[in-house]
Amino acid sequence: MNRRNMLYGGVAAAAGLAGAGAAWWKFQPHDVVAGEPERAAESFWQLSFDTPNGKNLPMRSFLGKTVLVNFWATWCPPCVEELPLLDYFYQENKDKNIQVVGLAVDQPSAVRTWLQSKPLNFPVGMAGLAGTELSKSLGNQTGGLPFSVVFSTSGKLLHRKLGKVSPEELALWAKLK
């Protein structure tokens, strides 16, 4: 009996170490190959998404503005927590040539239901599962959410952030051109 417990304990410890090692590796910053996110940023402006109400949302329509794109999902607690802050930021800065766009990495029905109870003032596009790959192409190494990118008025990728944004970060981003 004692030998069996030691064997189970050893297997559990090895599995725990393997899991911890994999998590450590996944969440470590990794170098982005130079040019990849910039090339993805160029093609980003050719994309178009459906809105929750079925209209077309072409990204090129925002060229000429500083654009904050936020990848989010209804099932992501930090995403849902930061949306009111992003909405407030948009309301305060929309007259300053700053645009916020939400790209939902989620099922359209879930997004529609969520937006009915918590409407947002900035446009939301339905990126679906392809949104994860799009965010990765823009430098989101782990594909985690929330993920935000800031583009210049000319469409150049200026900044990217994995995780919830803070009011201080938004204030700094509002100064980017």
Explain how this protein is built.
The structure is a single chain. With 177 residues, the protein is α/β, with parallel strands linked by helices. The protein is 44% helix and 19% strand. It contains six helices and seven strands; from the N terminus they run ααβββαβαβαββα. The chain has helices at 2-27, 36-44, 77-93, 108-117, 130-137, 167-173; strands spanning 48-50, 56-58, 66-72, 98-104, 124-126, 147-151, 157-162. It has a five-stranded mixed β-sheet, sandwiched between helices. The protein has a two-stranded antiparallel sheet with strand order 1-2. Helix 4 (108-117) links the parallel strand 4 and strand 5. The radius of gyration is 19 Å and the shape is globular. The model is unreliable at 16-34 (pLDDT under 50).
Short description:
The protein has 177 residues and is α/β, with parallel strands linked by helices. It has helices spanning 2-27, 36-44, 77-93, 108-117, 130-137, 167-173; strands at 48-50, 56-58, 66-72, 98-104, 124-126, 147-151, 157-162. The chain is globular, with a radius of gyration of 19 Å.
Brief descriptors of the model:
two-stranded antiparallel sheet, alpha/beta, 5-stranded mixed sheet, 44% helix, 177 residues
Strand content: 15-25%
Radius of gyration using CA atoms only: 19 Å
Q: Note the gap between the termini.
A: 68 Å
Parts with pLDDT < 50 across at least 5 consecutive residues: 16-34
- How many strands, what sense, and barrel or not for the largest sheet? 5 strands, mixed
Count of runs of 4 or more consecutive helical residues: 6
Strand order of the largest sheet: 5-4-3-6-7
Helix content: 40-55%
Number of strands: 7
On the 0-100 scale, what is the average pLDDT? 86
Structural class: alpha/beta
Shape: globular
N to C succession of SSEs: HHEEEHEHEHEEH
